[in-house]
Amino acid sequence: MMIPVQERLKADIERWVKKYGCERSSLLPVLQEVQKKYSRISGHAMQVIADHLDIHPVEVHGVVSFYQFLKEGHKGRFEIRLCKTISCNMAGREQVARQLENELGIHFGESTPDGRFSLEWANCLGMCDQGPALLVNEQVFTKVTPDKVHDILADFKKMMDVNVFQQVEEH
Ligand code: FES
Q: Which DSSP category does 128 fall into?
């Protein structure tokens, strides 16, 4: 009898979680196994991994976009786009914009000297009732405040450093 792909995937993920442990640090190795065997990381896979590692699916999604970005040779470059359309504007996008510029030390339309972050305006992202809305590569952040900007950037910098560290270790 053929086992449906989703069941096979679930069983594989369970096996890998057992192998690497159900800690947060197992996220990347498990994702790499899924990518190796299935050549992609589906939404369903992300959900199953999130359940097993007890991590929010949004976080899993963030790591997946980061990981895929690296694989595609973008070398950890993050494109940040802040919605400039009316609802987000009224919800406080100006303070968020200033915080982004201050934290990154660049203006909109520019990239950081190390090429890791670029800052752009976006038109409506369809999250108008949850503005200000922000996109980092493919990942959407809503109800962004200046404090949240700091946390978001800190998370991406941390992910980048972990990865650089791993790449150094591999060589
Ligand atoms: S106005 Fe910003 S998401 Fe629609």
A: G
Between strands 139-141 and 134-136, the pairing is: antiparallel
Which fold does the domain 5-66 belong to in CATH? Arc Repressor Mutant, subunit A (1.10.10)
At residue 136, the 3 state secondary structure works out as strand
Q: What's the pTM? A: 0.58
For the domain spanning 78-170, the CATH number is: 3.40.30.10
87 C-beta closer than 6 A to ligand 1: yes
What average pLDDT is seen over the chain? 85
Q: What is the pLDDT, as a whole number, of residue 169?
A: 47
Q: What are the domain boundaries of the chain?
A: 5-66, 78-170
134 in contact with ligand 1, CB cutoff 6 A: no
Please give the number of the atom of ligand 1 that sits closest to the Cα of 93.
2
3-state secondary structure of 2: coil
Report how far ligand 1's centroid is from the alpha carbon of 17 (Å): 38
Q: How far is the CA of 133 from the centre of ligand 1 (A)?
A: 6
